[in-house]
Amino acid sequence: MAMANVLKKMLIGRAFTTEKSRIKMFGIMDWTLYPSRGFAIMLQRMGTRLGEDFVYNLGYTNGKMNGEEMVSAMRLKPSGGWITLKGMAEILDFTGYGKVDFMKMDMDDEGHHHIIVRWKNNPTVEEGIKLYGKKSMVCSFFRGLFSGHGEVEFGAKNIKLKEKVCVKEGKTDYCEWESRW
Ligand SMILES: [Zn+2]
């Protein structure tokens, strides 16, 4: 199935189906919906006990695993660059991760890159700020998650998104993350 068709299917909501009380993506990959507030609390408790780097690394490991499973579910080769930026933004939007704008996406064949991403309207980030203000560690988890995904889906190497601007500072309605290698 061509990528455009896969995304079209996803956008009209048919990529996800429920079968025997389970949510499946493309009928193959199990998914779980989890309440945003509870997710923010879970991340904060882990970070408080184990440190913010742990939360980032947890996101990174999960991003890699999930990316590889999605590649396998869609039967695509993880050679990098197989999904368009617009397609990725649409998947994130559809799955409730918020709105992503890729401000810069320069990459060479060896995986060197300069990536700048702006991200807003993520409910877990918003719940984290409501509960913990500037101490919220939710962004660290998602920076790790995006970094891990980016390495699988786009073929860049050593992505480590750093937060340049955060919505929790109250000056912008978005977070801006950058990675350069
Ligand atoms: Zn942030």
Q: Report the sheet-strand fraction.
A: 15-25%
- Low-confidence stretches at least 5 residues in length (pLDDT < 50)? none
What order do the SSEs take from the amino end to the carboxyl end, as H and E? HEEEHHHEEHHEE
Count of DSSP strands: 7
Structural category is alpha+beta
Q: How many alpha or pi helices? A: 6
The coarse overall form would be globular
In summary, what is this structure?
This protein is α+β, with helices and mostly antiparallel strands and 181 residues long.
Topology of helices and strands:
Elements: H1 3-11, E1 16-19, E2 22-25, E3 29-31, H2 36-50, H3 52-73, H4 85-94, E4 99-107, E5 113-120, H5 123-132, H6 138-154, E6 162-165, E7 175-180
Antiparallel strand pairs: 1-2, 2-3, 4-5, 5-7, 6-7
Helix pairs in contact: 1-4, 2-3, 2-5, 3-6
Zinc ion binds at residues 139, 163, 166-168, 175.
How would you describe what is shown here?
There is one protein chain. The chain is 46% helix and 21% strand. The chain is α+β, with helices and mostly antiparallel strands and 181 residues long. The chain is globular, with a radius of gyration of 16 Å. 28% of the residues are buried. The model has no long low-confidence stretch (mean pLDDT 87). Zinc ion binds at residues 139, 163, 166-168, 175.
Keywords:
about 180 residues; alpha+beta; four-stranded antiparallel beta sheet; three-stranded antiparallel beta sheet; 6 helices; binds zinc ion
